[in-house]
UniProtKB/TrEMBL annotation:
Domain Gfo/Idh/MocA-like oxidoreductase N-terminal, chain residue ranges per copy: 4-121
GO molecular function annotation: nucleotide binding; oxidoreductase activity
SUPFAM superfamilies in the record: Glyceraldehyde-3-phosphate dehydrogenase-like, C-terminal domain, NAD(P)-binding Rossmann-fold domains
Protein name as catalogued: Putative dehydrogenase
Keywords: Oxidoreductase, Signal
Gene3D superfamilies: Dihydrodipicolinate Reductase, domain 2, NAD(P)-binding Rossmann-like Domain
One Pfam family in the UniProt entry: GFO_IDH_MocA_C3
PANTHER family named among the record's database cross-references: BCDNA.GH03377
Signal peptide (from-to): 1-19
Length: 337
C-alpha cells in the first residue's frame, strides 16, 4: 500500500497527542485536521501542513481518506464514526465507544459489513505489564481463580464545580463513563467478561449531576466474582492509577502500569518464577515503539491501528465489538444502582 492519507477530528488533549504520534508514522500523511476551536485550528494553519476544517463531513467529502482518528466528546462519536464508515474510511475512535449500546451495535455491524479496521482508545491493552498478566492467567500460573478486583483512583474532580462536560452524563461525563470504563474494558479482556451485576453504588462526592465514585460487585462469564472500585475524587493520588488483582488457589497477581507482582505457593520452572513474590517491571515488558509521547502505549496503539490498515485486516485488540460490550456493562451497572 502507498502512503496512507490520514486525518484527525477533535484537537483536545488526546487529539493533539494522536496528531503528533500519527505524523511520526512512516508512510502516513496527515492531510487534514478538524476542530471548531479557532485558537487550535489557527495554530495548525500557521505551523502545520494539514488542511484545516471546521466541518467533519466536508473533510470526508474532500480528502479521500484512508483512515481517521476521532477524538471528540463521546456524544459526537456515533454520527462521526458512522459518517466515516459510510465513506469507507478505517476508524480509530477514543473511548468510551458510545452513549448507548443500540448506537454502538449499529456501528459494529456497519464496520463489519464493510470490512473496515475499527479500533478504540483503551490504551491499557498496550501496556506490557497488563499484557503479561493476561498471558500468565491464560497459562494458569496461579491455578483456579477465586477472586478479582479492578481499581482506579485519581484527582480528577476535587471540588464542587459546574459547566464542564465531566458534569453532564449526556456528554459522557461522570466517573462511570470516563474513568471506570477503562477498568471494565481491561477486566473483560484480561480476566473475563462481566455478565451479572450483584450490587452497585454510584456515589456523588463533589459533582451534582453525575457520580464521582463507582463501587460494584461483578460476576464474570467464567463464574468468577469480584469487585470494581473506582474513585476520581481521590486526592491521595497524583494521577490516574489503574490496577488489577487476581487471587488463585496457587497464588496471586497484582498488576498496574509500572509493575506486575506474582506470588506463587510453589515455583513454576516453565515460567522461571520462584515460590514467593516475583516482581517484573514495565521497563522489561514495554512494547518497543518508533515514537514516544506520554507513554509507549499511546504510540503502540496507533502503530497497531496503522499496521492493520496497511494489511486491510481488522485487528483483534480494542475492536468496536469489545468497546460495545464495555458500554453494555456500563448500562448494567446503571440499571443496578
Amino acid at each position: 500500500m502507498n502512503t496512507l492519507r490520514a486525518a484527525i477530528v477533535g484537537l483536545g488533549k488526546m487529539g493533539l497527542s494522536h496528531a503528533a504520534i500519527l505524523t511520526a508514522q512512516p508512510q502516513v500523511d496527515m492531510v487534514a485536521v478538524c476542530d471548531t476551536s479557532v485558537i487550535v485550528t489557527s495554530a495548525f494553519k500557521k505551523y502545520g501542513k494539514a488542511k484545516v476544517y471546521g466541518d467533519f463531513r466536508k473533510m470526508l467529502r474532500n480528502e479521500n481518506l484512508d483512515l481517521v482518528v476521532i477524538a471528540t466528546p463521546t456524544k459526537l462519536h456515533y454520527d462521526m464514526v458512522r459518517a466515516a464508515l459510510e465513506h469507507g474510511v478505517h476508524v480509530f475512535c477514543e473511548k468510551p465507544f458510545s452513549l448507548n449500546s443500540a448506537e454502538g451495535q449499529e456501528l459494529v455491524q456497519l464496520a463489519e459489513s464493510k470490512g473496515l479496521v475499527n479500533q478504540l482508545g483503551y490504551h491499557n491493552h498496550f501496556i506490557g505489564t497488563f499484557r503479561e498478566m493476561k498471558r500468565l492467567l491464560e497459562n494458569g500460573v496461579i491455578g483456579e481463580l477465586v477472586h478479582f478486583s479492578g481499581e482506579a483512583y485519581g484527582p480528577v474532580v476535587t471540588k464542587e464545580k459546574v459547566g464542564t462536560w465531566r458534569s453532564k452524563s449526556s456528554e459522557g461525563g461522570g466517573c462511570l463513563f470516563d474513568y471506570a470504563s477503562h477498568v471494565l474494558n481491561l477486566l473483560q479482556e484480561v480476566v473475563g467478561r462481566p455478565v451479572k451485576i450483584n450490587g452497585s453504588l454510584l456515589k456523588q462526592i463533589y459533582s451534582k449531576g453525575v457520580e464521582d465514585a463507582v463501587y460494584t460487585l461483578l460476576t464474570l462469564e467464567n463464574g468468577l466474582t469480584g469487585t470494581l472500585l473506582v474513585n476520581w475524587s481521590d486526592e491521595t493520588y497524583r494521577k490516574m492509577s489503574t490496577s488489577l488483582t487476581v487471587q488463585g488457589k496457587n497464588g496471586k497477581i497484582v498488576c498496574d502500569a509500572t509493575e506486575i507482582k506474582i506470588y506463587l505457593k510453589q515455583a513454576n520452572a516453565a515460567e522461571g518464577l520462584e515460590a514467593g513474590w516475583t516482581v517484573k517491571w514495565i521497563t522489561d515488558l514495554a512494547i518497543p515503539v518508533g515514537y514516544y509521547l506520554r507513554g509507549e502505549e499511546y504510540s503502540a496503539q496507533i502503530e497497531y491501528f496503522v499496521a492493520n490498515v496497511r494489511r486491510q485486516q481488522p485487528g483483534t485488540i480494542n475492536t468496536f465489538e469489545q468497546g460495545l460490550y464495555t458500554d453494555k456493562v456500563i448500562e448494567m451497572i446503571q440499571n443496578a444502582a
